[in-house]
Fold this protein.
Amino acid sequence: AIYSLTRSMMGDTEAASSLQRCDPRVIAGYVQFCHSASAADANKPGKKRKKPRTKDIPPAVLETRRKIQLCCRDNDLPLAITTFHSALQNNVKLEAQTFYILLNLCDGTFAERTGVHVGTPRAHTNPGGRDDDKTKSSRTIEKTDSQKTKVSPAQISAECRQGHAHQIHELMSALNIALTEQAYTALVRLASRVGDYDSAERYLDEAERTQQCKVKLRMYSSLLRAYCGELSDGDGVTDTSRQRSHSQEGLSKALKVWKRMYDHSGGPSSGHPDYRAIKTAEEKAHASATEQPNQLFGEGIAPKITLSECEYSAIMSCATSLRDAP
């Protein structure tokens, strides 16, 4: 029994360590294939559908989508990454939703908070309560594939998760796929968790320039709390064993994150079509108005986003330890 347990643990460790990133040459070839396919589709005659019908989607795309959704259900990042890499090698044109699910799975904190990942398929049952032979066979294959790569989420390091998320983000950028707020939140969380604050700031810059991204508190929270010395593994959950020391520089950066959240929550993002005209009008209005010299967060303006208890506690804890009473 001890031997079997040891072999099982060694197998899990090997699976976790073998979670390598995709070969850049494969990604380059996949990007070229997608651009060529998009150009060919654009030149086809006839009316284009904004959303293709399910029967028009290639079976390989549907199968890949389902496999990755089931990986979300089982919280199985290794199998999801393996399926993703296989799709790239076989030139399976993935949907934007599949990329969003992969980023959410790399983050890993959503399942820890709710027990389920975004993108997890609903359980379907037959009216008679019995599955046909095809359904049984499909579930058996899915269970076998999941068991081959099943690794505890705790065995996959944050650095490994962040590396895969970064590669997925780079691929999405090359394919001109806009990210949602939730996707940027996953990227910022992972970068903050491993201490890569420069990347986290770049993700925020990109998110604030993206028209489709409607910023929320959770997108800024992890970086703000990380600057205050907290390393959180999800909303409201702090890993006290990995807390970093407080610093005046970190507190200053946390306050800047707070300010930028205020600045980008009450008006249109720079990706808005009329952003320049609105910005010019706002600058003229501010120039004619009288402003207080120490006005940091725009008192008198009701922002759409305010900090929660978690962020206030992090800032106050950091300021208290630095004896920064003001």
